[in-house]
Every structure is written in structure tokens, then in C-alpha cells.
TrEMBL record:
Pfam families: LOR. Belongs to the LOR family. It comes from Vigna angularis var. angularis. The lineage of its organism: Eukaryota, Viridiplantae, Streptophyta, Embryophyta, Tracheophyta. This is Tubby C-terminal domain-containing protein.
Length: 192
């Protein structure tokens, strides 16, 4: 899937062990589980579980959507929370909701868009310039993740629709030295 060289850096956003060195990208498959909630399993190309995702159902009692990204051992590594009013997602370390544990915030690039675009701001960013940008294809069936407003591509996501007997899958290619746990967390904010 990947067709561009990765940038020469490897700053971990979630954790260092999720920044795989080059020269090849990390290819992952995100499979939607058959359940009422938005639960997913993330595997490598050999079928090994890398992450699992568990989500709550939004209700009047719980007006925010919460999703949790777990490592392959079942340890919570990211808590994603969406505000229903403005579609802003916030990611926190572990199961926390404390501002000191904030990792990133993701929101729409603008109100009116022909193609969906989202800006991602890391917790330590105090500027108006985003750290990452997510852009959909015209069809909305694939996504690219870029560093800020640059043309430096760091990940690609392609949808593979399921059939009546198979589940929907998302094929993900994360370029070398990019935190693939961070990329998976970003993908979960796309409301798959």
C-alpha cells in the first residue's frame, strides 16, 4: 500500500515500542467485531493480535462515546472520548480522562468540506498549526495521514467491505518510525 518514503524520525506518541524501524511499513488489519458496540480486533498480516478495541454504546445516561485501545496482553493504552455536540475526539493514556494524560485532540479541519479532513493536535501543541492531518479520498473509502499541512505521508487506510458472511476490514499501512498505536487510535476517531 505504501508508496512514499518515511520521514527520518521516530518520535513515539503513545510508546516507543510502537515505532517500528524501517525500511518496511507496518501493515495492520482492523476487523470490526460482530456486536452492537464498535469493537475491533487489530492484527498483523500473520493474524497475530496487536490491539483490541472496546467501545460503549452512547445513551442519554452516557452522552459521550468512549473507546478503549488495549495492547495484545489486554492492558489499556488509550482512552478515546468523543463529544457528541461538536464531534471532537480526545485521546488519553490508559483509562484516564485527566487533562495531564491527554495525548491528542482531533477535530474537523473546517465546517464545510467537500472531502473530509481532520486536524490532529498533540497535547503539548499550543499553536494553531496542527501536528497531523487526516484526509479522505473523494469516495470516502480510503484515508491518508500526513504530518501537519505538509505532503509527508505517514499512514494509509483502505476500507475493504465485508459480505454477508464476513466482517468489514480496514487495511492499514504505517510508515517506518511512525507510532502505529497512535495511527490506530486516529483511525478509531473516524467513526468506522
Amino acid at each position: 500500500m505504501a508508496n512514499q518514503l518515511s520521514p527520518p524520525f521516530g518520535t513515539p506518541i503513545i510508546a516507543h515500542q510502537y515505532c517500528a524501524p524501517g525500511p518496511h511499513p507496518v501493515d495492520l488489519i482492523i476487523t470490526k467485531e460482530r456486536s452492537r458496540a464498535d469493537n475491533f480486533t487489530v492484527t498483523d498480516t500473520n493474524g497475530n493480535i496487536v490491539f483490541t478495541v472496546k467501545s460503549n454504546l452512547v445513551s442519554i445516561v452516557k452522552p459521550r462515546k468512549h473507546s478503549f485501545l488495549f495492547d495484545s496482553h489486554g492492558n489499556p493504552i488509550v482512552h478515546l472520548r468523543r463529544s457528541i455536540q461538536n464531534n471532537v475526539w480526545k485521546a488519553f493514556r490508559g483509562q484516564s480522562e485527566e487533562s495531564r494524560d491527554l495525548i491528542f485532540t482531533r477535530h474537523n479541519s473546517s465546517l464545510f468540506q467537500l472531502r473530509l479532513k481532520f486536524d490532529v493536535f498533540l497535547a503539548n501543541n499550543v499553536t494553531d498549526v496542527c501536528d497531523f492531518k487526516i484526509k479522505s479520498s473523494w469516495s470516502g473509502r480510503s484515508w491518508d495521514v500526513y504530518i501537519g499541512d505538509s505532503n509527508i505521508l505517514v499512514a494509509q487506510i483502505n476500507t475493504k467491505l465485508g459480505t454477508m458472511f464476513s466482517r468489514e476490514k480496514y487495511m492499514v499501512s504505517v510508515f517506518p518510525n511512525i507510532d502505529h498505536a497512535f495511527i490506530v487510535a486516529l483511525i478509531l476517531t473516524l467513526q468506522l
